[in-house]
Known about the structure:
Elements: H1 2-34, H2 42-45, E1 49-52, E2 58-62, E3 66-67, H3 77-87, H4 99-111, H5 122-131, H6 138-154, H7 157-165, E4 169-171, E5 174-175, H8 177-185, H9 194-203, H10 207-210, H11 216-235, H12 241-246, H13 265-278, H14 283-288, E6 292-295, H15 299-312, E7 322-328, E8 335-339, H16 364-373, E9 380-383, E10 388-392, E11 395-399, E12 409-411, H17 412-417, H18 421-431, H19 433-443, H20 466-477, E13 481-482, E14 488-492, E15 498-501, E16 508-509, H21 513-529, E17 544-549, E18 555-561, E19 566-572, H22 594-606, E20 627-628, H23 638-647, H24 658-667
Parallel strand pairs: 1-6, 3-5, 9-20
Antiparallel strand pairs: 1-2, 4-5, 6-14, 7-8, 7-19, 9-12, 10-11, 13-16, 14-15, 17-18, 18-19
Amino acid sequence: MLRISKRLLARIAIFLGGFGFVAGSTLFVLAYFTVDIPNPNDFVNTQSTIIQYSNGSEIGRIGAQNRTIVPLAKMPLHLRQAVLAAENRNFYSEHAFSPQGFARAVWDNIKTFGRGGGGSTITQQYAKTAFLTQERTITRKIKELVIAIKLENQLSKDQILENYLNTIYFGRGSYGVETAAQQYFNRSAKQLNLAQSAVIASILRSPGYYDPQYSKANLERLQGRFAYVLNGMVKAGWITEAQAKATKFPTIMPGTSEGWLSGPKGYLIEMVRAELIKRGFTEDQLMKGGLVVKTTFDQKAQTSAMAAVAKLTPANAPENLHIGLVAIRPGTGEIVALYGGADYVKRQLNDATQSIAMAGSTFKPFALAAALESGIPLTSMWNGDSPQTFDDAGKPYVVNNYGGEGWGQISLMVATSHSVNTVYVPLGIKAGPDKVVDVARRAGIPDSVAMMPTPSVVLGTSSPHVIDVAVAYATFAANGVYAAPWFISEVNGSNGGVLYQAPSPSPNTVFSKEVMADLTYGLQEVVKNGTATYGTAGLGRPAAGKTGTSEQNSSAWFSGYTPQLAASVAMFRDDATQSLNGIGGLNSVTGGSFPARIWNAYMKGALKGQEPIDFAPPTFIGGTEALPIPNPVATIAPSAAAAWCQSADLTGVNKDLSEFCTKALKKYLIPTPQP
C-alpha cells in the first residue's frame, strides 16, 4: 500500500510538474508579447531638492523621495563590488534571471498562496522597483521577469547597475547610494571607503532588519552580514583575505528624527522653500526636480548657533520658553546663521523671523544715533535720578531705572553703558521721538513693526522680530551701510544649469561714519563695563552691543556686533503677560544674562579662526569735555500731573498710572477720584 502510494505520488508530481511547466511556459510566452516596458514609476525619476550651506555642504532636503542620482563612474569600485557580493555576485556573467531562483520563488508562492519570497537578480530587483508594485504574486513575478529580460536587451549591465543603485531603498528615507551615504556616514558616495561600502551593501537587503539605530539585535545582524559581504568579495577575487581581515566595522551615524523638516535645521529648510515659491519655483519642482540650492548660511556659524542655544538654554525651563537668534554679515545682508526653534516639526512658528517680542532697551541705540546726529555728544551730562516724570502730550509719563537705582548727574556715555532709562527718555525727547523712529527705520526696522513717536519709543515698547533687530545692528557694524537681508545665492537644476542667481547686494549708506564711530564707541562700553560685561566675558575681540529687558521681564535681548558679524538673541514666552523671572534660577532674567551668554558663545564659535578687527576710533562729536545740556528736558509740573490725574480714567491703558496718581493727588491735596 505504501509502495503504491509513493508510486502514485510520483506520477502525480510528474504530471503536475509537466502541466505546470506547460502552463507556466504558455503564460510566460503570452506575457512576453503583451507586457511592454512601461514608463518608470514617478518616484524613480524624482530627485529631492538639496539645500546647501555656503560651502556646498548639505543642510537638508526637500522632497517626497530622498534621492540624488549619481553616475556609476562616480561610485567607488569597491562600493559596486560590495553590492554585487551582497546581492548578485554573477551579475555580469549571468542573464536577467536565475532559473533556479525563479523556480524556487514560484513554488514558494504556490505553497504560501502568494506570500512567499524570491531569488531575484539585480536586474529583476530593478525591474520590480522601477516599473512594478511591491505585491508578491505570481503574475507580478512573471511581469518582473519579462521586463528584466527586455531591459537586458535594451541596456548594458553598467546601465542597469547604475539605475539599480540610484533606485533601491536603503532605509532612513534614503533612495539610492548617494543619499544612503549621507544618512549613514555623512559623506558623498564617492567618498565611501571599503568598510563603509560593505555596510551600505549589507543594509539594502532589509534596512529595518539591519539598521543599528533600531536595536542591538540589528547591529549584531548587520555585523554578521558585513562579514558575509567581505567574504563574498574575497571569493570573487575583488579583495584579498588580508584586506578583508584589516577592514574593521565602521562607526555609523545615529539616525535623524523623522521628516526632512525636523530639528533646528527644519526652520532653514522651510525658509528656503517659502522663498523659492515666492521667486516663482513650483512645489512640483521643489519636491521632484532635483534642484540644488546654495544659501548664505555658514556651516560653522550655524553649528555654533545651535550649539550655543542647546548648551545655554536654562535648565528646567517652561515649555513655552522661546529663543530666536539671527546673525548677519555687515554690509552685505547675508544671513549666515539662524535659530528659529528646537524642532520645526513640533512648532511651525519661526522664533527668529515670525515671533515678536517687546524690544526693551535694545532700541536705545536708535535714540543715541538720533542724538549724535543732532550734535548731542557722549560727554553730555544728564540727570539719572529715579523715578522721574515727563510730559507725554499732557499725560504724565513715569520713568524708573532698573531696580529703582538713582545715578545722579552722569554722562551720556555712562547712561549708555548702564542703560539708564531716566537719561534716555529725555534724550529721545530732546532729539525728537519722530527722529528716533526715523533712525530705527533707516537702520532696518521695517514698517510692519509699529512705532509711535512718543517718549516711550526709546524704551522699546515696540515688538519687532529678531531678524529686524539683527539687520539694524548689522547696519551699525557696517558703519552706517544698510543692506537688505537675504539667504539664497544660487539655484541649479538637476542637469547643473543655473536657474537663479542672486543679484549683487545693493547697500545703502544711511548714517555717517562719524555718527556710527561714536555710537559704536558708546556701545562698546556696554560690553566692557556695562550691563553686558558678565555675559560677554572672554570673547577676546572688540565688540559692541546693547542689552534689552522689557517691562515685567517678559522678554530679554542681547544684540551686538563685531566688524565681521552682527547677531541678535531674544528670549521670551508666548505673550507679554508671562514673565521670564525665576527661569534658570534667576530672580530677574535680563538681556545681560542668558541672551548675552548665548550671543557670546555663538560669536566665539562663529568667528573662531578669524583675526580680531578693531572698530574705527570715535570722532567725539561735540568734543570731549563734559557738557551740560542747554535747555534740559523738564519733568512734568506736579500741579499739571495732578490735574491730569483728577480727570483721567485710570482703567484700561492708563491703569499703570493709578498708583502714581494716588500719590500725586494725595500730595497736592486734590481729592482722589472715586472708582
